[in-house]
Amino acid sequence: MGKHAQMVMGPAGSGKSTFCAALAKYAETQKRVVHVVNLDPAAEDLRYEPSIDIRELVNVDDVMEELGYGPNGALMYAMEFLVDHMDWLTDELDDYADDYLIFDCPGQIELYSHVPVMKAVCDALQNCGYQVVALYMIDSHFISDTSKFISGILSCLSAMLRLEVPHLNVLSKVDLLGEKPDEEWLEKFLEPDMPTLMHQLEKETGGRFTKLNKAICSLLDTYSMVNFLPLSSNDPDSVELILAHADHAIQYGEDVDVKEPRDQDPDPEETLPSDNS
User: Nearest 10 degrees: CA dihedral of 49, 53, 56, 62?
Assistant: First the structure.
């Protein structure tokens, strides 16, 4: 089947680990083998059993204790330590050759914007022959505030441009929006309509930042690269939708050998002995 990997990324609290657990559970019901890799050295109480765990290499608590760093500094140090010891990860991957891997990544957005750590991880996976897709998740509460939502779009775009791999953006926790949201209302966030968002942003900021708002919205409208898929991790159909898009992005399943049809039984009329008399 080849080597395939999902990098599940996004800010802290966006539901990355919950999605990884839901995806692993869904795959099990479909008799499909996937392995979840914990790439967060600060993770606690995982909802899944990781096949590979970065905490076996480096742990944030140990870094804080030995070097006296704070939580954020310790996490950045731990991720840079991983990059310096990438052979550890590639050696671990040898046990899962030709398997489908789900990487549960840390929630420090610096890792996806200006620090080259996640880019280095993606490059290492590609060098090992993996087809890599990035899933960047933002919490659905972002849509309650237009300025917050636009900042989320910018972070998605930053990660997309920096990582240079096939990319999906996911609006997570849509089940927490209360009653089932109107599809037309939700659609303006899944496929952001920048003129509409610009108008709403002007109302919220009172026109104080008109030039800045126009510049940002114009940038996003020009690129027009950021759309979202809705996700409710407790809904198998929603998880299936995300998985289907991810599979398509990395061409999973397209390299399966085509089976030749079995020879049909010969036509009795064609096998009758000829009359030589």
Answer: -100
